Amino acid sequence: MRILLINPNSTSSMTAQIGANARRVAFAGTVIEAVNTEGTPASIEGHADEALAVPAMLDLIRAGETRGIDAYVIACFDDPGLAAAREVAHGPVVGICQAGVQVASTIANRFSIVTTLPRSVPIIENLVAAYGASARCRNVRSVNMPVLALEQDPETSEARLIHEIRAAREQDGAEAVLLGCAGMSDLCARLEARTGMPVIDGVSAAIKLAEGLVGGGYRTSKIGSYDFPRKKELSEV
């Protein structure tokens, strides 16, 4: 099967890291194409960044449809444009927040999420509520560092993540922690080893969910809300 892994921001080094970690967990027969959008923000940190990234992301999905892509993974924890993406795709479209929340709810009774900036906390809280997991998600924590700092200052990033993961266990009563940024995916195993906590990477969770959906023959329903968009003329500027 072929999965198109889309990083909705324009940072190619992050895309390479995300793609490498996705391939590490994928089945041998799964081909993962990791791509990022162009002409979009270097990182997604809020609603405006999401809105700017979605049109280019939808273009990548439309192009993937013509190439026979089986499933799509949106590699941003805000799950930007997820419903719109499902409208334009035949195959399943998986967001890493939704996939991570589903895995966390399956392997632990209570979990916390650790993300980057404080401004992302309410966005993620709203997503968790929309996915029906508020009762199990005990807290959404922030390391108070921008997304690109994960690459620019990895030592500080890892130290703050370890601190918040331990606090999630001791203060929240969390039994697992979900990493709230695709750029954290390469830290998952190391953080688990250093904290003794089950640590979930949304990218890996989304890849395995996408493989399972394709393997089971499931496609996006085109009855009702996820039906293909009606064709309309676009006005010229």
Question: How many domains is the backbone divided into?
Answer: 2
Kindly report the spatial arrangement of strands forming the biggest sheet: 2-1-3-4
CATH topology title of the largest domain: Rossmann fold
Mean pLDDT: 96
Please report which band the strand proportion falls in: under 5%, 5-15%, 15-25%, 25-35%, 35-45% or over 45%: 15-25%
Given this structure, which CATH class of the largest domain is correct?
Answer: Alpha Beta
Report the principal-axis shape: globular
Write down the Rg: 17 Å
End-to-end span in angstroms? 41 Å
User: How would a crystallographer describe the biggest sheet?
Assistant: 4 strands, parallel
Architecture of the largest domain, according to CATH? 3-Layer(aba) Sandwich
**Spans of 5+ residues with little confidence (pLDDT < 50)?**
none
| Count of extended strands | 8
What order do the helices and strands follow? EHEHEHEHEHEHHEHEH
The proportion of residues forming helix, as a percent range, comes to 40-55%
Protein name: Hydantoin racemase
Organism: Pseudotabrizicola alkalilacus
Family: Belongs to the HyuE racemase family.
GO molecular function, one term: hydantoin racemase activity
